Amino acid sequence: MLAWKPVLNQSGPTEFVFRVFTTVPELQVLLFLLFLLLYLMILCGNTAIIWVVCTHSSLHTPMYFFLCNLSFLEMCYTTVVVPLMLSNIWGPQKLISLAACGAQMFFFSTLGSIDCFLLAVMAYDRYVAICHPLHYTLIMTHKLCVQMMVGSLALAVILSLMLIGSVFTLPFCGCHQEINHFLCDVAAVLRLACADIHVHQGILYLASFFVLTVPFLLINISYLLIAHTILRIRSAEGRSKVFSTCSSHLTVVLIQYGCCSLVYLRPRSSTSEDEERKLALVYTFITPLLNPLIYTLRNKDIKGALKIAIVSKSTSGNKGVGN
User: Which terminal Cβ of the chain has fewer Cβ within 10 Å, N or C?
Assistant: First the structure.
């Protein structure tokens, strides 16, 4: 495993600046308010899911354990990016040190990788629940769930350290360089190095291929086995009921992998830097925002728990007023 040792010499920059979205003050205010609103909605939506799952014992199952972790990851993921992004929208360009850029890159890469691994783990959970229902509680124990989460975290950390180690051992020329992005993305920072980066781009592509393709293949295998089991169910109502437990997860998988694949697995020659920034906005804001909405609107258990929570809260409130 490569260690991260930033090159801090006279020829390399100690600070970067991010490219601004616009220099028009009115548009800056509009973008600031829009991104702030989306960020607050992401925090509220995912916090609501965590709260509902934690406070309702009927949801203390492996499926919702993983859903809680997914919601927590989404909040951390956006928090690593959005506050710094908002500060750069408002007012003049702000400098970010090499160490701070590396820290953001590490957490961004780690959380994004865990997100992909967790979606594969959730697919396996659905496979066991549908294909081996009688052995579900014996297989999906709390210990195994925690082990899978810890394993996903460890693998993501190792891959992120390798990527960052390969980037920050490169020399950077100039005093201040502008990153054509709103975050310290690996590909965007690599372009600023004053050295041959073909090997480093290859490492980035291989790491992205592993993080995106391997979990996606495991998800496909899980759902092929699930589909085989569903087709053996004779009643249409039974098939619909079983499929409904997977529909939310499938929707999230398609959104997540669709956006990330367009950014990290497309040939660099066919992707402009401006396109990368636009796609990055989708998986920074839209995906974390849609996840709680998808699981809330398409999941009967979550909707039922939310209704109970709202009714009990309103009832307790009315009692308090009456007293």
Answer: C
